Amino acid sequence: MPPAGDPAVPDEFVQALRELGLAGAGVLTGAPLTGGVSSDIWRIDTPQGPVCAKRALPKLRVAADWHAPVERNLYEARWMQVANEASPGCAPRVLGQHQGLGVLVMSYLASADYRLWKQLLRDGQADPPTAQAVGHALGRIHAHSAARPALAAEFATDGIFFDIRLEPYLLATARRHPDLAPALEQLVEATQSHAVALVHGDVSPKNILIGPRGPVFLDAECAWWGDPAFDLAFCLNHLLLKCLWNRPATAAFLAAFDALADAHLQAVAWEPRGALERRVAALLPGLFLARVDGKSPVEYITAEADRERVRRVARALLQHPVDRLALVRTAWQEELAR
Ligand SMILES: Nc1ncnc2c1ncn2[C@@H]1O[C@H](COP(=O)(O)OP(=O)(O)OP(=O)(O)O)[C@@H](O)[C@H]1O
Ligand SMILES: [Mg+2]
Q1: Residue 57: what pLDDT?
Q2: What's the 11 CA to ligand 1 centre distance in angstroms?
Q3: Substitution candidate for ligand 1 out of 108, 218, 234 with most atoms within 8 A of CB
């Protein structure tokens, strides 16, 4: 029995840890970690020390009905392994993955040393070196994988990626803005037709821990062999949106945007940088609009006037795409200055 008052470690985790040889026969204790909408995630104290165990849920804990296949947990483990090869320490270390039970066990990163980037940004802490480190690590993962096309076979997740990224973000938004549907559908097609590298698929500040040796990417359940433009656009989108969360920190967020984009683009060796940048600059307004009108709106934009600001800028850029990220940033900067 766990100590009185502590919740019991779920049976699936106990069984998975035992079968993976990561726990002895004794009672395991631990605590659920907060934040996950798509998985059960726990810190579990094993005789060798704490580990983090994650089990994908078939239905996400979000308002819209949103299902996702549980085998995504296997792709998450694989993504972490490739990322750590590309840039050591940029993902938790995979200690084991139990396919039958859908459980991933990884190193536990204690909150004393690792802070969620989202919390830092909320407090207006958007220093360019951190953003640069995020862009650099992400670029290295893309470059490393792009040079190893055999990896594509390990991430044949087109169906999952469509169901949990392209459809709920871009196509759901197209249904709310029928006049933009051709442009948004075109973005889906462009994203699907540039399968050149390993994509994380959820590079959001809530999935990035900032630790003593730089950023650590979590939550790679959307891993996909596809267009790296998606990751860069997805992440930059959050830096634009954060301006509405903490208005006084706008200049810092926009400087972080430039730093992250530049660092990533520096790493682009698999295709002309300008070609990738053009796809990111085209996709970003679609994702921007998706975070107010798609299936997964950000929780911190609550004023209708702010949603309208996003719509104004996104709609203009979707109608008249630009090919440089600085132009996307400037369009948003000008809107915020109005
Ligand atoms: N290896 C780890 N060490 C310590 N804490 C972790 C680790 N992995 C995840 N966490 C914590 O658990 C939270 C949820 O993790 P994760 O994002 O992987 O789950 P999720 O259910 O897929 O989340 P969501 O769908 O909400 O993004 C993270 O924000 C982080 O605070
Ligand atoms: Mg997460």
Answers
A1: 80
A2: 20
A3: 218
